[in-house]
Design brief:
With about 170 residues, this protein is of the alpha/beta class. It has five helices and nine strands; from the N terminus they run βαβαβαβαβββββα. Helix content is about 35%, strand content about 20%. Strand 3, helix 3 and strand 4 form a beta-alpha-beta unit.
């Protein structure tokens, strides 16, 4: 497995806990945590593989730290780089845009030539719509700590097992 970064906001509570569970599930020391609020273009140059946290804010928006970095991201050629995205959302409180930020970020990454991995099943989720849904599956791992916290560990373990097979 090439050099892998997991990028999340160190200042959040829920996303940070999920990211730490993902790191623990990998059980490998070659995953480096990077604070999403301190992103630079160099981070994207220095790693081959990325696991990105993109929680959905408000009514289906990217968090400020991603929103502010998008112009830099859109200028990058990410060909040859592999990305998996996870995000937190609330199926009951925001069912019309559940985990939209995952889909928004994946769309930007794809436009930059990135390879996206870590698609997951829609099974077990109940929501109205999501920009993270494509072709009958999610383009990343949605986590709902508000309504399905008891499922988080199992979802992470399954997702990480899948990523280990997909990351080169």
């Amino acid at each position: 497995m090439g050099k892998t970064a997991i990028i999340y906001s160190f200042n959040t509570q829920k996303s940070k806990k999920v990211a730490e569970k993902i790191i623990a599930a990998f059980g490998e020391s070659n995953i480096e945590a990077v604070n999403a609020e301190e992103l630079t273009k160099e981070v994207f140059e220095n790693f081959d593989n990325f696991i990105l946290s993109s929680p959905t804010w408000f009514d289906g928006e990217l968090p400020n730290y991603w929103d502010e970095f998008v112009p830099d991201l859109e200028e990058m050629d990410l060909s040859g780089k592999t990305f998996a995205v996870f995000g937190l959302g609330d199926q009951k409180g925001y069912p019309e845009n559940f985990c939209d930020a995952i889909g928004i970020l994946v769309g930007i990454l794809e436009e930059c030539g990135a390879k996206i991995i870590g698609f997951t099943s829609l099974a077990g989720y109940s929501y109205e719509s999501s920009r993270a849904e494509r072709g009958g599956q999610f383009v990343g791992l949605p986590i709902d700590q508000e309504n399905q916290a008891r499922l988080t560990q199992g979802r992470i373990e399954s997702w990480v097992a899948q990523l280990k097979k997909e990351i080169k």
